[in-house]
Amino acid sequence: MTERASGRAADEIRPVTITPNYTRHAEGSVLVEFGHTKVLCTASVEKGVPRFLRGQGQGWVTAEYGMLPRSTHSRMAREAARGKQGGRTMEIQRLIGRSLRAAMDLEKLGEYTITVDCDVIQADGGTRTAAITGACVALAHALNWMQAEGMIVHNPLKTLVAAISVGMVDGQAVADLEYTEDSKAETDMNVVMTAEGNMIEVQGTAEAAPFSHDELLAMLALARKAVNELVEHQRRVIAG
Amino acid sequence: MTERASGRAADEIRPVTITPNYTRHAEGSVLVEFGHTKVLCTASVEKGVPRFLRGQGQGWVTAEYGMLPRSTHSRMAREAARGKQGGRTMEIQRLIGRSLRAAMDLEKLGEYTITVDCDVIQADGGTRTAAITGACVALAHALNWMQAEGMIVHNPLKTLVAAISVGMVDGQAVADLEYTEDSKAETDMNVVMTAEGNMIEVQGTAEAAPFSHDELLAMLALARKAVNELVEHQRRVIAG
Amino acid sequence: MTERASGRAADEIRPVTITPNYTRHAEGSVLVEFGHTKVLCTASVEKGVPRFLRGQGQGWVTAEYGMLPRSTHSRMAREAARGKQGGRTMEIQRLIGRSLRAAMDLEKLGEYTITVDCDVIQADGGTRTAAITGACVALAHALNWMQAEGMIVHNPLKTLVAAISVGMVDGQAVADLEYTEDSKAETDMNVVMTAEGNMIEVQGTAEAAPFSHDELLAMLALARKAVNELVEHQRRVIAG
Amino acid sequence: MTERASGRAADEIRPVTITPNYTRHAEGSVLVEFGHTKVLCTASVEKGVPRFLRGQGQGWVTAEYGMLPRSTHSRMAREAARGKQGGRTMEIQRLIGRSLRAAMDLEKLGEYTITVDCDVIQADGGTRTAAITGACVALAHALNWMQAEGMIVHNPLKTLVAAISVGMVDGQAVADLEYTEDSKAETDMNVVMTAEGNMIEVQGTAEAAPFSHDELLAMLALARKAVNELVEHQRRVIAG
Amino acid sequence: MTERASGRAADEIRPVTITPNYTRHAEGSVLVEFGHTKVLCTASVEKGVPRFLRGQGQGWVTAEYGMLPRSTHSRMAREAARGKQGGRTMEIQRLIGRSLRAAMDLEKLGEYTITVDCDVIQADGGTRTAAITGACVALAHALNWMQAEGMIVHNPLKTLVAAISVGMVDGQAVADLEYTEDSKAETDMNVVMTAEGNMIEVQGTAEAAPFSHDELLAMLALARKAVNELVEHQRRVIAG
Amino acid sequence: MTERASGRAADEIRPVTITPNYTRHAEGSVLVEFGHTKVLCTASVEKGVPRFLRGQGQGWVTAEYGMLPRSTHSRMAREAARGKQGGRTMEIQRLIGRSLRAAMDLEKLGEYTITVDCDVIQADGGTRTAAITGACVALAHALNWMQAEGMIVHNPLKTLVAAISVGMVDGQAVADLEYTEDSKAETDMNVVMTAEGNMIEVQGTAEAAPFSHDELLAMLALARKAVNELVEHQRRVIAG
């Protein structure tokens, strides 16, 4: 078995930190770190819902994702300056939004919209999985705030969701790929799961070689273990 | 076991038709039909490669996807008129492109770019999986044309790729969801596989309820069987 | 007199086919073919009118036009990807919309909007004239559907409109230019007429040399004859 | 015969003024007035040609058109602020460009591009025909300047082009419609002709009612007479 | 003391002309000239206010700025064609809007919006200061028109505002820089003042070298004198 | 004399922190805090210069500015999602860029471009002045890195620049306005100065009332004192 460049065991995730109340204005705000990957997640509560939901007595949760231009090894053009969000950005923010909505009872939310902004301060692989993991905590905090303010009666959060990247690197299934692993992985898979271990999203992509059924199972097993650990982190921060 | 609205068995895909040489100008052109879903796939060969590949002696395969405004039940705004491609469009065309590249030896292609346009004439669920399945045939035809023209010596196509949607509907795993099933599925999963049964992409999304490990396995089994059948269709058309 | 490359007589149009009910979802849908030129025309009925017409008790008919990227000899960039519709596209869709409205009594339509999408599947000259000719049939079908549904009492279609391109090629007036003729024509003229032989639009452009009054008259005579034939095709299809 | 609101005879055009050297920087610059319609036309000479012409030893002439936001009765949104040029703007600037190129021998121009900007200071109907008429003078001046500078040897201008709007108003053919006539015309037709009386562009549109062959002939006769007068104005200004 | 290229004294501004009623449609319209710099300023009155002001019983004044493509020495790309307004344009139109609002009692205006368009016909330095100076007169005329029409009872104009550029050129403070001075100035400063000599905007920029406190004072003294003269011009034109 | 809401003296700036090496990838990276205002400034070095500078043997420094959507009290729409940068953003990033270039000898930089990204993590007034102050430090660090890498021989930084906002609040000149002061200030002025006390930019805006010459002088005196203090902070961080 090849050793990982990082010295980590195959099933070992990077040190995880979730710092609550990272900024002052948002109703929920955390800085989530998976090793050197740092993402600021803020949850903003607004009255009203998008047009397609009006008058249905339910709320909405959506997400936006962005990378600061120099969060990456070499500078990326600013999407605001280029005048549009790229395909990868759209794909990721749609994924985060779907993942968070899967954890919610939107009828209990009432006609409010919560927008969770996930902005990458520093990238070292796994920004989308860190974002989902942090966003869920920011969302939980915003919901607590809404309850304290009397805006909602029952907490709409049904479960916690967390996410991890797994992959095949040098023929071995590994968890929580950092950038150097990610860029040479044969397969890269992002898994979003609930606290109960059910799957919300599974997105596996053969980057360099197709993957077999057994490899898929090996990666999923790593994902389940990692998500369990991430949910523990989330619970500690939410409990405060 | 609930019967499917269509009367199909759980593992039964819709009638598949792949019509070659559907238009005159493209180097490869097929109309692919999965039941009422109809997608026109054209492969266009152009000299040169994108900037990031120049001088590396390899080629490129990319895809674009679009839906005609009234391919759907109610008319959608034309993306060209709105001034941008939506997130779903970008997500799908990136998926098609990655899937096709996974079937290719890009060094054998030399410094050519093949663009496969997948335009949905009529939609009834499964447009992205039909698109990938048809696009692979259009690509194969274009490569045959290049060989006949002496532009390439060895065929760069390493395998065939095909795709199918599977999902959990009324608690049952089913293959090749049509629109009415898709819109009420608990889980929707798109699987892209090679002719050998290895996985290129697995994208499972819990629409209404998280899915369990066993459900994932049941859906994957259906996908494998369906892809086998699709590859048979592809082979017959390519053999001509 | 030079023979036409196609072997057609100067006043001879290409074989015309109008296939009704080409797709399932639209209220009116035809595939129109002028030789190798193929355009899919779908008419979509929606409740309501644009802002500038609200509360005036009349309806609206508008058109959009697009070319599939590889409908042409060499691939064109997709307008949705470039982020805007080109000048030619806008010019043509405005022309189609005006032509259709000239055939309508918009007060009889009531506060509905009918959008006719004309998408070119394959181009070989004359796409805008084929589009107008097919769009009128799709519109007629959609109006029949509205009457059957009880949405309108009286049919708002006052007449049929059809269109043909005529031009000066090698000093000779010819009808229904195909691509190879179009690209070397001295003058290109598109004529939209009613079933009664009155003119809706006349757009003549000197491509290579100015045209004289006599040449204009010669081209108009060809147009009148061709439109008569096209209207016969339309009538047969509408009669069903 | 109904009298025109303006008191003009049916074939009488508005007072025409062409003021040369209206601004300092452009190589050619005129303010053209057709009654209250005022358009500033500037011709700018630049080295080089667009990509599609490179290395072919010929030049290019193109035009851009714009209306100042309050050139019209009620203020229009500024196109630069809306982020795109509308369909009418594109249609008109393409028309101006084609008209000017029809007057040019582009090989004699050499690898230069001349851009003629036509900006409407005040609109009262006929802005595009005034623009073409003025643009041709600005172009002539720019070509004279190029000859004086030794940039070209032979003058590439083969003829003069001028344009007029004609139409059917209250059942009568009239020339040079002002805004109040234009807005109630049954048919509106713009005719671009050479000094020799040949046609460059004919664009007739039935606004309220189709037009007959005889009406077309009546309108063309008015156009010919008006263009003759306009060419006289152009000649006087160019002769200086 | 170096003589200015223009022969003007350090505190001498260029000949100023303000031509009222320059166009017919706008409620206020002036052509303002500072030497060769010519800007058309039109004020348009519209019922209603922007969303953020609705229901507050006050009005709004805003400005837009543009340069005709060949108002400058070499042709600039048209902003409408590029699809966006540049940073300089936005900066200037925000400046003009703020300056005009500083002269207004917006409550007296009632729920109307006045948009002042400043379009540069010819540029020779100082276009933004000429624009502000002319825009204030166009605004005054529009307000007079509103009073005459009975739309407002009391004139909302509290004072006149005018603007001048000053700068350090060759170590000397000078007023009203023309293009050749502007392009070599060490410091460029735009000052907007009221008729009473108070400051609305001061924007000083070190182009080539930082400026000292004394230089700032010297420039401000020139600005005060110049604005006094400009206000005299404004008063004469408004008095009519 | 009114006391400030914050309890600060009129000339007292908020606690300033400049944290160096805040992120890993950028050649220079600081988090600058003026009280609750927090801006991340990263300097990125790239080979080459913009087109307009090519072949002139000098370098370029430019800046971009952005606010995270929930850096503010209520959430702002993300500029990347809206498809363009607003006028305020453009104005600020142009200001930062000019200020930094004023501190540089661009010929000593050689043909490199340094882009300084200033992203607001949390806003409480004074984001642009904090950004300039932090950006200068990030720039200094990037230049040190270039020297260490042997990319430049002599340090191109001629001086340090720092910036502060000053204003008239309740009739009193105060330094370093926080959000609650800023929103009720009569006048708001941003001053950029060199370490030597010379002025780079002075931008004073009368928000609620014009300002007098004496008020201008009072504000400038506060700015000079504050910039002195900021430069001390910069020096300590750069010295490391």
Automatic annotation (TrEMBL), chains A, B, C, D, E, F:
Keywords: Nucleotidyltransferase, RNA-binding, rRNA processing, Transferase, tRNA processing, tRNA-binding
Function: Phosphorolytic 3'-5' exoribonuclease that plays an important role in tRNA 3'-end maturation. Removes nucleotide residues following the 3'-CCA terminus of tRNAs; can also add nucleotides to the ends of RNA molecules by using nucleoside diphosphates as substrates, but this may not be physiologically important. Probably plays a role in initiation of 16S rRNA degradation (leading to ribosome degradation) during starvation.
One Pfam family in the UniProt entry: RNase_PH_C
Name of this chain's protein: Ribonuclease PH
Limits of the Exoribonuclease phosphorolytic domain: 12-142, 160-226
EC number in record: 2.7.7.56
Family to which this protein belongs: Belongs to the RNase PH family.
SUPFAM superfamilies: Ribonuclease PH domain 2-like, Ribosomal protein S5 domain 2-like
Catalytic activity of the protein: tRNA(n+1) + phosphate = tRNA(n) + a ribonucleoside 5'-diphosphate
InterPro entries (UniProt xref): ExoRNase_PH_dom1, ExoRNase_PH_dom2, ExoRNase_PH_dom2_sf, PNPase/RNase_PH_dom_sf, Ribosomal_Su5_D2-typ_SF, RNase_PH, RNase_PH_bac-type, RNase_PH_CS
Record has DNA-binding as a keyword: no
Organism listed in the record: Oceanimonas doudoroffii
Binding positions for phosphate per the UniProt entry: R88, G126, T127, R128
Gene that specifies this protein: rph
GO molecular function: 3'-5'-RNA exonuclease activity; tRNA binding; tRNA nucleotidyltransferase activity
GO biological process terms held by the UniProt record: rRNA 3'-end processing; rRNA catabolic process; tRNA processing
Subunit structure: Homohexameric ring arranged as a trimer of dimers.
